[in-house]
Amino acid sequence: MPLVVPGINSKDSGSGSGTDSWMTKLMGKTLADKSDETSFAKKDLPQNHRVVEEGGFLTMDHNPDRLNVHVDKDGTVKKVTKG
């Protein structure tokens, strides 16, 4: 799991709603029912989100408020985007 230190090696502004903030919270973790050192609770994601699996299909509708959580085949978060 990559080491992420807010404000040092991330662009986290502390707003809590930006992509960088979510990237800091989610990178290298798996999505699960509850949070711990290696996982993040799905219930704590914003209401307007989608999980994008590696090799999966995406709709082309653009929603600037939607959080896209990209995961690899084992469910580890690899990227977080908006749209």
TrEMBL record:
<feature type="region of interest" description="Disordered">
    <location>
        <begin position="1"/>
        <end position="21"/>
    </location>
</feature>
<dbReference type="Pfam" id="PF11720">
    <property type="entry name" value="Inhibitor_I78"/>
</dbReference>
<dbReference type="InterPro" id="IPR021719">
    <property type="entry name" value="Prot_inh_I78"/>
</dbReference>
<protein>
    <recommendedName>
        <fullName>Proteinase inhibitor I78</fullName>
    </recommendedName>
</protein>
